[in-house]
Design brief:
Length: 220
């Protein structure tokens, strides 16, 4: 009960912009001079923005996008917001946020518990969004892997077809060469008797004319 009564007396201010290089410790040091502060919460910047800044060679530390400051008293919170909003932050001139402008507003009827609920809600939304992104990334990965497998299968089929085509072409060339080759003609040789020469005819014995005349009835 005592804690609830003390919470009712506190006031919360909202900072819509946090200057570069400012963190909760530095913010507390600056605002504590105006009144006692209970709690401070600064929202870290988007991780993608931080990665982009680092790659560009910018500040490598943690930056913040917005914040809430809980003062011990509502009256102090109202006075600080009214006095500082739109004014130069100032401080030491060598400070990186010396020329920055305060963007601060008092949140009427706003309690720190409301902030914790808001943070929990934002975290839930962020986790849900992250889950959707992961699911989409998995679907994209599965689709890519299926396309890779399909491409490999098509490549294998294409290679087999090329091999078959090459074999057909080689077979066709071999057949053409075989068809154009000269087939030697087989010549059969048979032994022949030598022809009778003129001398052999002349040397052959002949019958006498008397014998022939006697056979055929002729006269001498």
């Amino acid at each position: 009960m005592e804690e609830a009564k003390m919470a009712e007396k506190r006031g919360v201010c909202y900072l819509s912009r946090i200057p570069p290089h400012m963190d909760p410790l530095k913010l507390r040091q600056i605002l504590s001079q105006y009144g006692e502060i209970q709690r401070i919460y600064l929202t870290p910047e988007d991780p993608a923005a931080r990665v982009h800044r680092k790659r560009a060679g910018g500040f490598r530390g943690q930056e913040f996008s917005e914040g809430w400051v809980e003062f011990e008293k509502k009256s102090v919170a109202k006075r600080v917001a009214k006095m500082l909003n739109g004014e130069q932050i100032g401080g030491r001139k060598r400070s990186t946020f010396y020329y920055d402008i305060w963007n601060i507003k008092y949140l009427s009827k706003f309690k720190w518990d409301d902030l914790t609920e808001e943070i929990a809600y934002r975290n839930a939304i962020r986790e849900q969004k992250l889950a959707l992104e992961i699911s989409a990334a998995k679907r994209e990965r599965d689709f890519y892997l299926s396309k890779v497998d399909q491409s490999r299968a098509l490549s294998s089929i294409e290679q087999r077809l090329k091999k078959k085509q090459k074999v057909r072409e080689q077979s066709a060339v071999t057949s053409e060469i075989s068809g154009n080759q000269f087939v030697p003609k087989v010549v059969w040789q048979f032994p022949q008797k030598k022809p009778v020469t003129t001398n052999a005819v002349e040397s052959k014995p002949r019958l006498s004319k008397d014998i022939l005349a006697g056979i055929f009835g002729g006269t001498s």
